[in-house]
Amino acid sequence: MSRRPEKHSLTLRGHRTSVSLEPEFWAAFREIAARRGMALNALAAEIDAGRGEVGLASAIRVFVLGELRRG
User: How far apart are CA 54 and CA 48, in angstroms?
Assistant: First the structure.
């Protein structure tokens, strides 16, 4: 079972924001960024740019899930 969400600060295009994700999602998000050779902030900014009206935390969770499904 997931633990409580953890809040971390990210910088998106020069602006600081806080995102709350479960530790498992943070770990997977970091692994994906490392695999792509990207900084976590850069990957978050990419997701942010395409998320539309969905909250950033939800967009990151959906992104991580999609990456894991692709294997």
Answer: 9
Distance of CA 14 to the CA centre of its chain: 17
What is the set of domains in the chain, with CATH numbers? 6-70 (1.10.3990.20)
Q: What is the pLDDT of residue 1?
A: 59
Q: Name the band, by pLDDT with cuts 50, 70 and 90, for residue 69.
A: very high
DSSP state letters, 16-41: EEEEEE-HHHHHHHHHHHHHHT--HH
CA distance 68 to 62: 10
Beta bridge partners of 18: 9
